[in-house]
Amino acid sequence: MNESRNTVMTAYGRLDETALLEVQNNYDTSVLLRIVEDLAELLSTDGDRDGLRHMLLRLHGMAHSVINGAGLTVSTEAETLPELAGEFIEEAEEMISRLQGWIKQIEPLEQLAVRS
């Protein structure tokens, strides 16, 4: 294969020429900025929603008390252990779904790699 004919050297490496033409014609780079904003929102903790880390720490406290007989470290007035576990799972699944969407949006850039 004549490498110079099928690839293009850029400041960021040698890229597949056909894939580069495809993304130049069809890829909106502003999608990456939207992902940045979405990621910032996902990682922040706002007043209406506990962060996943905090939820997981509360869940550990509850499970540690119930399973290992440790003293209470989490209020018993809030949700139950299964409710908190379910809430955490729901939040984590939402995060996974968002991450999978981001991956699909970024995959065209991975396709710029030169294939042998």
UniProtKB/TrEMBL annotation:
NCBIfam families: TnpC_regulator
InterPro entries xrefs: TnpC_reg-like
Organism of origin: Herminiimonas contaminans
Name of the protein: Hpt domain-containing protein
